[in-house]
Amino acid sequence: MRGRLALGLAGLAGFLLILEVIPRLGLVSSRYLPPATEIVGALGRELAETAFWTALRDTLNGWVLGLLIAAVAGIALGLLIGAVPLLRELTASTIEFLRPIPSVALIPLVVVLLGTGLESKLVLVVYAAFWQILVQVLYGVRDVDPVADETARAYGLDRSARIVHVLWPTALPFVMTGLRLAAAVALILCVTGELVIGAPGLGTRIAIAQTSGAVADMYALIVVTGLLGVAINVGARAVERRALRWHQSVRSEAAV
Amino acid sequence: MRRRSIFKLSAAAAALATLNACGGASSEEPGGDADGPKQVTVGVIPIVDVAPIYLGKEKGFFSARGIDLSLVAAQGGSAIVPGVLSGEFQFGFSNITSLMIAQTKNVPVKVVANGAASTGQAGKDFGGVAVRKGSPITSASALSGRRVAVNTLKNIGDTTVRESVRKAGGDPDDIEFVEIAFPDMPAALESGQVDAAWVVEPQLSTVKAAGATVIASTFTDTAPNLTIAAYFAGTKLIADDPALVKGFTEAVNESLAYADGHPDEVRAVLSSYTKISEEVRSALILPKWPVEINRASLETLAGLGETDGIFGDATPDLGKLLP
What we know:
heterodimer, A: mainly alpha, MetI-like fold, 11 helices, 0% strand, B: alpha/beta, D-Maltodextrin-Binding Protein, domain 2, 2 domains, five-stranded mixed β-sheet, 10 strands
């Protein structure tokens, strides 16, 4: 574990060094790609501003709310549709039709309907994250071992007990994968919505820095969104490991 | 949720169909009782042009008229016009050609106050055509056959660039316009993706700092003291709440006059809503902010737009658009 961390940090340091050297050597004009030290300086200035923290809170608010709505709806509908064969047949083609629609394509529509505030951002986030979760849950439900299910029936477990003891444990690894994917997608859509629609958040700050020609500030904010993405992924993996302690995929990983 | 999405899609289709009838789903009407201040939200673009309204808010010109003003920075006019129509914004800021285009499409909007105007001084305007350091192009007439960047095609940029070329004796029909966002223009110009760029502040300062030369001041070439942008409202609000609109217009006018007389305060207020560096802020060319809309200049601009075919077959009706 420590070795991996060291390697990861070395990779990051190498990346920063390249980022520092390229503009210094004049390979790319520093007006368009400031050296890493300047970006870090701009990041320091950002962190000292209250408006930055408000923007960060707005972005995280949208992310949490969006992910929560998508998770609840995705898991509930996924279990329901997955468990009822008729529903699965009825919805399969509709899901396959709606799922690939890029959330950003809905931007003009949500602006007209809901304006440029939090609601619009939420629609984009929920729309993108929901399918990730729903589809994983559907796969998870389909993965139930028929022998286990039959055994549960033979022992007289009723429907709700079978959901708790057979269906849910089988689907859980899939649900966790769906949540992890959705968490990343939700962040992307949050920032995109802010950038394009102008809903308050980090994306809006990036856009303002861009229109103001404040290049270093813009990169600093982009770095913040990147760090957020890393943090979210690390957090999601931790949750996944915790929820699936008992599962073989995690148990084999634990040896590392 | 899936059903809700479908519901939203169909609701959206219905809303789009009734858009021209000004049927918005957003419900935030400018509320408040007769005594309390009225909540007013204005959709603006976070650029230099809207500095007066930020300054006027700070100075209390709006609160003195019972208006509790919120300024929302939107990403361009394409988000502001729907926002005004849906009632999310009571007022919006837009360049005047976009408003003319909206008017020819019967979008129910009307100008309520002036926004920003050209400085009227050739070579010292806040927007113009720039060429990179060492470019063989030295005058607007040489732009024929060249690639010129504008922020939006078929809008005020290409119309006024063509007029500059026309006046300089070049062929205005032989320019290849390329759509590039203002923030990307300095890099596009320097790397040679385009031969010239129609830029406005603060990017104008950026390209000048990189050695670019301004070869044409397109606004001054188009008309003396050209009106470039305006504040507008939906016609429904204007009919329903004339007192609010009157108060807003007066407050904007006071802000414009104040901003025009206090450039140092304008430069200072820029730091509150943009991230323009102090160096650029202290030196950039500010627009003029006259209270009066220069109608004659807009007739010229509308005529040029019509010649260029940016309104389709329609002719903008300035009588309907302007107050």
